[in-house]
Amino acid sequence: AIQIQLQLSRKHLFQTLNLSPDKINLSTLKGEGQLTNLELDEEVLQSLLDLPTWLAINRVECNKAAIRIPWTKLKTHPISLTLDKVVMEMSTCDEPRPPNGPSPIATASGQSEYGFAEKVVEGISLSINSIIIRISAKAFNASFELSQLQVYSVNTSWSISDLRFTRIQDPQRGEILTFKEISWQMIRIEADAIQSAEHEMLSAPIRLITNQSKIRVTLKRRIKDCNVVASKLILILDDLLWVLTDSQLKAMVQYAKSLSEAMEKSAQQRKSMATEDQVSSPPPSAQQVRTQQASSAADQSATMAKLFSAYDVCETSHHLQITHLDLHICDDIHAKDKVVNKRITGGAMQLSFSSITLDYYPFHRAGDSCAHWMHYSDATKTRESWARSLLDEFRTNVEMLKSTVRDQQGPSHTHSSPKHGKRTHAHTQVPPAPQTPKTQLMSSSIVLRMADFSIYQVSTADQRRSSPKTMISCNKKSLYLPSEMPAIHVEFTEYYFPDGKDYPIPCPNLYAQLNALQLVLDPRSLVWLNLFALDLMQSLEQFMEIYKLTDSQKPDEHVDIRVDGLMLKLVIPTDQDSSSPADLPRSISIQTSEMAATNTRHPANCTRSHLEALLQAFEEEPFFSSSFSSFPRSSSSLPILHPVFQRHAHEQDTKLHDIYRGLVVPTMGTDALKMPAATDFWALHFAQFWVDYEGTRGGKGRPQPFVDSFPLTVWACQPAKLVQHQEKLRSAAGPGLSRSSSAEAVARLQRKRLLKEYYSTDATTSSSHNSNSDADVHVLVHVQKHLSAQVSHRQYVFLMQLQRTIKSLQQTLQQDLEKMSSKRDRKDPSHHPADRQPFTVCLGLLLKSAEVSLLLKPIPQPEGSGSPPGSELSPSESRGTLEPASDARDGGEKGNEGSGSEGGGAKQSCTVDQLLCGDGLEVGPMQKQSDRSDYGHYCHTSSCARVCVCCSGRLMRDRSQSSFSVSYKNMKKSPSLQSLDNISIDSSLMEDGDTYSLLDRGKNIVSVLVLKVQSVCVGMEAMGESTAVALEVGQVTPSQLGNVSLRQYLSNRSLGKKCKSGLHSPAVRARLESGPWAAAHSPLAERNGFLQLQLHDYTASFMMSSLRNLALFLEDDSASQVLPMEISIRDTHIDLKDDDPRDNPDSEPSPITLHIDSLIIHRRDDGSFSIGGAKRARTVGGICGVSKATQTQAPPTSPPPSDKEMMLIEENECLKVELSRAKMALAEAQMEKDSLLHRLKNLKVSTS
């Protein structure tokens, strides 16, 4: 037996060392031997190491080797093989080399059963003092130097032990698990560009030194033939510190780009040659395990089977784990290949990452469970459910495509023999129907997780020595989120068939989850990063041109993407010195509780039915109509509601729809159901979205509210690219489509063409902004609920500073981009064609109702007066809900009458403080009861405790079923708060048991002016450097509350109250233009912009004190820019009441009624104002985008329409009615479909 073992060991050893038996000097009795000047076999090593096919071994040498065989302990102790110095030369392959051969262990065993000899060979331990690996590539040379490398067998605890404990064998499965570990003390990596006369690329060498690391390997083999069924490889790296200059980072990107094409080809080859052994094998079912256990002869076999299942490798996977990574990127000041002179020299940025894991699963059955994956979490579960929905939709489409292909093949055979009613199979050759491939659809997934990370702001040598501030960080600790929740979780999945069959496959999908991330928009860091990225891109383009590299990426290919966000925060700071007032904010924070962004229609609130409801809300406003061309919009404005939105809502832009229309020939190829990225429709839904002021020195670091929480929905698409894609399909389809159209459809198209010609704008108008009506990007923003905001004077001053800061940053970034583009164009004029159109963006925003509270200075009061006239709330009143002030006309009468009724009203109301404290006061019907967290609901109950109980469900529905809850420090929970566990509370509430405790209870008295607006419609167009913003407000209702306690007002204001809807003419119209479009008005307008404002048919009442306070509110000490403007006021009635304190309180001043028939106010470039009358009112409606104001306010009298025109008008009205009915029916059907699907899903869950 010993001789047989020796022969097998020597046979395997000779294959690896490329030696013949007569050249080895081995002492058989002692079990020791030495070899010198060895040359190892390259192909055997390639197969043993399972190298990728884009990498080949050219030569391997070893100066000295020693072997030691413990003959008497082969079952428990390994054979030791020691190598002194190994030098390996490798090269990259442009085309993948032939795949690796079979494993040397399997070859040595002669494909026999896994026995004693195989155990001895697999248990060999290897020790190498030094390994030098040199790699030659097309663009660079690299070297790897490892010291003290060891390979040894370990047990399940990854520690060296008896060889019998380094494997787990399950005879029932016929498989065995073995555990190996590879460790080394240090690795040194160097890479440098190849210098030659042809390629004069200046590149800095790259160096990286790591400390002790290890690789853990788990192999699963079949016992009958020793073949590896699956393997798991885990590379574990400890703390890494890497300092890179920008030149070195450029070199890294260039080297990776040079290898990307070869690596992609090798990956495709590996997928196409995947065998059934490598496919993921699901763990056995419980019934199989019971059968195995029943059939086992002893309890030991059952124990081994359970142990095998605990450490089983279900599928092949590779993993990378990094405990901590510190990366420092700094400017290379002495570099000779500087492309641009940076504004910030000597800048450095630190990137710190904690607990990075990268997992790769190359052979996973599509649609199978991922529960056996490493680090399986809720994020993976969410992505798994989403991907399964996409896969189910794809399989349904494949079945529909199959039937379409059959239908297309069917008529061709019947037309060939029209005399027969039935198809003859004897004489007609029928093409084979599309068949489902025998091999199963596979997926290849990459999973990236980061437990925590921080990216710090750019620091320079001239800055003061202080700890760097974070730019991007994770706020898990401050929000008390679970520590196991990753900051970033990303999964990318591709699909393929192992045999490479030409059959439809799904699009790749990308899922990302972002948790508690905070981004600080530091201007210095953004400028530095912008220049750094532009410089990197330009150097990469030069590198690709030199080495004739092609871009292997497919930017036009559609990828299903979904991004989920939890507690995301954006902070925009301003530069302020220490001398600024203490109550002036330092930054503004934009936050959201939950966010979903996707270009698929599977997540909630992102479906086609939601888009249809949004479009109906937009269509109710005439401002968004395509025929609306009056001020503040123009005939040259882009259509905000582009037709592509309707087509997408009705599912008329899919590949199957194009096939049914005859634009695409149905096939069963790989890309049969794939769409280009140009057809993507993005939907963003924010469950709660709010804005706060931060950084006041007097506020103890707590935020102050700006915009209260509200749900927000955004839809975006690329109509220009989508229309181009449709035109390509039509041109490829040819004239066959029109021949298949019926006579009725042709007549309908002719009528539509007549309607379009009739309603088209006059050709005599001047040149429009954009000759093409399709913008590059169209965005629709919808705010569904009532919006509330509050601004004080200091906060208004801060917002003006913030606006100037953002504008300056935008100009700086634009200048750097233009400077880089001009240098690129001078080097290669082909990159910038002369007919290149500027980038255009069109945005539409709809806000049904909102209120803006202006916190003004308190109104002076006479001595001894408790409350000023017109005030509905005094500081001494009970904490009831605030009622809006009455009109100034009858303010005196209602003010006296309301003194007695308000006490009763306070008793009938339940305040926020009572809600949160659980006071059991008897209340009546609650109205206008709300706070910052959407407490604005109408509840009928007998106590506030019952209010909390009955409102919790409604609160959850109003928060878009948000189940996220945050517990805050020092927050005590009373029994009455048990029903509020699932309610999300803003960070500005419930801190240290006091609401808005930064405000003194009795000292902060303000005068509040509330502006309630309804039907706010905004349209924005941007083309290159020109921008035009059109605004239309339906109603503006001022409400003056007088002097109130700020803390009391913020706690009890009525957030949920909405303005009454109804037909109305817009009260305010405004248009703001900047850039070349505004140059037609004045030279200064091109830089600062030009504002046009119309206030027509408006009636309001104001107190004189409120207007004086409003003037003080709008004062800004900083040097403001002159904004040229033109204000038109017509048919406006303003009632003014003098509420100043008087010596004689009995005398009541009579109100002043101000009527403005027509007034024009101009502000010129020098800042002067000119006021005119009705003579200029005729040209107010001019639009800034044209050279001359040709549009007049009143349209000229037109002749009566002809009979043809009347017929067309009637046809148009009929079409409108028919379209509205169809929309309503479709919306009802969609809602019914969603309801049925939801019920079906619940039934499936309950039955399972």
Automatic annotation (TrEMBL):
Keyword terms, alphabetized: Coiled coil
Comp. bias regions, Basic and acidic residues: 816-835, 886-896
Extent of Polar residues compositional bias: 269-291, 406-415
Comp. bias regions, Basic residues: 416-426
Signal peptide positions (record): none
Keyword Coiled coil listed: yes
Composition-biased stretches (Gly residues): 897-906
Chain intervals with Low complexity compositional bias: 858-878
Coiled coil: 1212-1246
Region (Disordered): 266-296, 403-438, 814-837, 858-907
Protein name per the record: Bridge-like lipid transfer protein family member 3B
Organism: Oreochromis niloticus
Gene from which the chain derives: BLTP3B
